[in-house]
């Protein structure tokens, strides 16, 4: 089983204490995001979990406790963008995050930390030239500490449109994508970085940019050291290349307050949910009302045998 921690919220940044408590307890309870009365009980035994994929903008609180997950295989998706408080209201300063990125990579290796520069947003302030300048600056600083960068372009869902209503978002046309991709590709090549897209229809192969997989079976196989047989995740969009995983997060619980976020629908709800968090609870937030249906999630290892990299 692949454990996603998490597409729905930043657990390393805000709930690392809870996560490590769940590891010690050996299980976690996860509410169905569409029916709060349906709850999955997920076994966290390292013999069942093939790999943990962390998604974060700030894993600093985890750095001193990584020994507590030494029995697990894992890698990090670390989003480090060029935006200021205009779009990322509660995200720490760039200098702090670059330092955190370097420290994490030094601890776990540059093959287990993926830099995400996404989503790419165009405004009167965040222009193409702005992105070229910042992408090169970040690529120069981070390239010794990672092998890959993942990019995507903003998708304006209804909930993100509402959050961005006061920002003059400029449409990203195909020509914009092609120009951005070409410049980013040249910068990535300069710093020996592999560049991939996340959930994008556009074909950028002419710029040596492939369609990526955030939950990546090939990367997981290399980390685990064994062949894995995992199907594509049917719960993700058709254009998404990710393989199957189980997510233990919850929507409307991330306190970064990024205006482009698809996982936070309402800031008032987020603030209420933050107050409902108890790091000793098996749930990320809230309490059991005792009328829920708790079902043990069926899980299996995808490992098939030793893999050779020669």
TrEMBL record:
Upper taxonomic lineage: Bacteria, Bacillati, Bacillota, Clostridia, Eubacteriales
Protein name: DUF1848 domain-containing protein
Cited InterPro entries: DUF1848
Organism: Clostridium aromativorans
């Amino acid at each position: 089983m692949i454990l996603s921690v998490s597409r729905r919220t930043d657990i390393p940044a805000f709930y690392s204490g809870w996560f490590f408590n769940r590891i010690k307890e050996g299980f976690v309870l996860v509410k169905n995001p569409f029916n709060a009365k349906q709850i999955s009980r997920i076994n966290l035994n390292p013999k069942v979990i093939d790999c943990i994929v962390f998604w974060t903008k700030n894993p600093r609180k985890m750095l001193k406790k990584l020994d507590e997950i030494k029995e697990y295989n894992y890698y990090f998706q670390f989003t480090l963008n060029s935006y200021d408080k205009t779009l990322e209201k509660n995200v720490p300063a760039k200098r702090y995050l670059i330092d955190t990125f370097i420290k994490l990579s030094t601890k776990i290796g540059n093959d287990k930390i993926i830099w995400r520069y996404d989503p790419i947003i165009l405004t009167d302030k965040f222009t193409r030239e702005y992105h070229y300048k910042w992408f090169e600056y970040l690529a120069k600083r981070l390239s010794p500490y990672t092998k890959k960068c993942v990019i995507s372009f903003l998708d304006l869902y209804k909930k993100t449109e509402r959050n961005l209503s006061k920002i003059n978002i400029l449409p990203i046309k195909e020509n914009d994508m092609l120009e951005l991709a070409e410049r980013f590709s040249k910068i990535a090549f300069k710093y020996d970085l592999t560049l991939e897209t996340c959930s994008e229809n556009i074909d950028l192969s002419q710029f040596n940019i492939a369609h990526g997989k955030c939950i990546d079976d090939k990367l997981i196989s290399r980390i685990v050291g064994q062949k894995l047989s995992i199907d594509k995740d049917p719960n993700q969009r058709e254009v998404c290349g990710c393989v199957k995983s189980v997510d233990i997060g919850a929507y409307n619980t991330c306190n970064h307050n990024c205006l482009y976020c698809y996982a936070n629908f309402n800031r008032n709800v987020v603030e209420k949910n933050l107050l409902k968090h108890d790091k000793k609870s098996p749930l990320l937030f809230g309490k059991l009302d005792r009328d829920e249906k708790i079902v043990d999630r069926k899980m299996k290892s995808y490992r098939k045998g030793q893999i050779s990299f020669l």
